[in-house]
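Quick question: what would this complex look like in 3D?
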Amino acid sequence: MTTTISPLAPKVYADLPHIAGVRLATAAAGIKYRNRTDVMVMVFDRPASVAGVFTTSKCPSAPVEFCRQNLSHGTARILVVNSGNANAFTGKKGREATRLTASAAIDAVGCAETDVYLASTGVIGEPLDATKFAGVLGDMAERANADGWLEAAKAIMTTDTYPKVATRTAELGGVLVTINGMAKGAGMIAPDMATMLSFIATDANIAPAALQAILSEHVGTTFNVVTVDSDTSTSDTLLAFATGASGGTRIESADDPRLVDFKEAFRQLMADLALQVVRDGEGARKMVEITVEGAETDAAAKRIAFSIANSPLVKTAIAGEDANWGRIVMAVGKAGEQADRDRLAIWFGEVRVAVDGERDPAYSEAAATAVMRQEDIAIRVELGIGEGRATVWTCDLTKEYVAINGDYRS
Amino acid sequence: MTTTISPLAPKVYADLPHIAGVRLATAAAGIKYRNRTDVMVMVFDRPASVAGVFTTSKCPSAPVEFCRQNLSHGTARILVVNSGNANAFTGKKGREATRLTASAAIDAVGCAETDVYLASTGVIGEPLDATKFAGVLGDMAERANADGWLEAAKAIMTTDTYPKVATRTAELGGVLVTINGMAKGAGMIAPDMATMLSFIATDANIAPAALQAILSEHVGTTFNVVTVDSDTSTSDTLLAFATGASGGTRIESADDPRLVDFKEAFRQLMADLALQVVRDGEGARKMVEITVEGAETDAAAKRIAFSIANSPLVKTAIAGEDANWGRIVMAVGKAGEQADRDRLAIWFGEVRVAVDGERDPAYSEAAATAVMRQEDIAIRVELGIGEGRATVWTCDLTKEYVAINGDYRS
């Protein structure tokens, strides 16, 4: 397995400020890895509003089911996340493992079971030995502090080559609030769900229903429009917590006009984290932004964009820095959405390579290839049919992806 | 680009007998390749019944449109196939190229335009210089002979590492008839269409409508259930020709009871060719048969089977000989069809690895790994919900797939 950091990694990691009411700790519980942390806890000193989005998999992990059940209660006191084992497809043993972990978490902070949130990431199908949490959670809750966001992001990594963190501030009802977030994910990344693990916390004073509405609204243009390999995890979990420690009036509705600045900052933070996941796509060397315009509807545009983004032939061409726009045509054609070959136009960056259903008369292989040599590549397809529009993000498909995934488990 | 023959290639190629009424020839017209043949013609001395199935792509190639138009006429005198250029997404120039090629074909055999069939395979988006056909087709039609099926199959190869041919005989109305077929395809292979180029010829005396019904019926369990990379070509074309030279009463309906033996032989030949395409999947080292049982419906079973067959994570695990059945669970979960995690059972070969939603109590890593080391791997999933059933075939995803497709065009 490669241990090289993705060439698309951020040059510097964001320096995350404190979020009043949030404390973090990490530990090495030896779940699978050696010589690294594999447990992270986030402790909320007072019950925080919580919102969540989960995988659409019909075979979700035990922790996903656990969180879904608790979400209706709306408050959280502790989040426990482990890497190395996903506790997915572990049947009755999996449910016992979540119960055991929750029980240790309850003891650690003294809360109700409905205030506990759990997430696990790693290998599927192997029983998770939850007794490993029993010994560490109490100590972790005690030494948890407001620093350590980057360390927390490191503890939840699996095949990630770098920790993913982001921060934003926003004005909310006359108060300056902060939003911090972290994410993990590099493979088994595809849309229509929360697409990996991501945890966001803010000191804003927002009710659970309003927080949920904001999270659900923005997931469609952030985490749900990135894809690494079209594979949907059993464990995808995106949770947001609002401690309310910033003070100010509590916001009850997502439609509250005071939320304008906060919502935009929240969306930007989600997009930032989602793109960091793509930039750490397993084996990735290129980041690709795919925009489809002129489709029958926005939904049709999104399906065509994903057909391009998930095509192995498009992704390998990008890896090979080959301006093979014929494969874009192929992917448009197979999407099943309305398309008129003879109206299609395609751009790589600013270079139009095809127009009116054939190669651009002014096509320059040199110009197209120069775009393909870049690290960030924008592909745009104009269908010329309607007003539908969508943008999705993906990475290239390299030999390293195959190498990483050919022996991940062993 | 690799030039090694797939390790999954047949040990010997079938020896194809003559089909009365069919003559073949190949030529090197220099369309793209050097030092190899790139044009194949199949000449029918008398009008043969013809049937066809084509790509479902919304951006089909010019030859696909040309064949679709002619099909209603029901007879064929000549088939012209070239490799090296797909004449797809070539706009007006593409239609001119098919017209020019058809015109040379008409001159070569003296027939109506509606009796001409064309197929092109290779790079998309580059204008095809059809003047290259003008010089060779007349000579080819003259020297065409009943031998040379293997040579014909070689002339239509692109990234294929071996020619694909198959033959069967059947009893039809008291007469012994022969069916020969060839196929090409190694990448851009996915279901819901004819899935590459394949040409089948028989001396059976069958009307076009009956031949079409047989072809359409069997495509669903043969060519449409194989996938190499989930990518659907713009050029997929499957054509069948029946010369009637065997004599006997002409069969007008596919429901004719005399067809029983013929239909089975025809289906077997189609399956044989379809599996040869998978066995030459770009970079393939393993052939994988995926069976899903106990689904809500057959259609649901097929969608789940394809979700497994097209999952990059499943395919790379197979390449790595890793019995990573957790990824099978993932692929079942993401298919969107009804599944109950806690009833799921999974077999690799004869080894049950998971049952009742968790790892089999008798799970043996050694036994599972022994299956993964084989060249042909059978994966079976039992959902325990209904009676729906489907089998699909695919190959593994190796670094060679990435290498082949990272620089195919350049």
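Answer marked as accepted. The longest strand of chain A covers residues 39-54.
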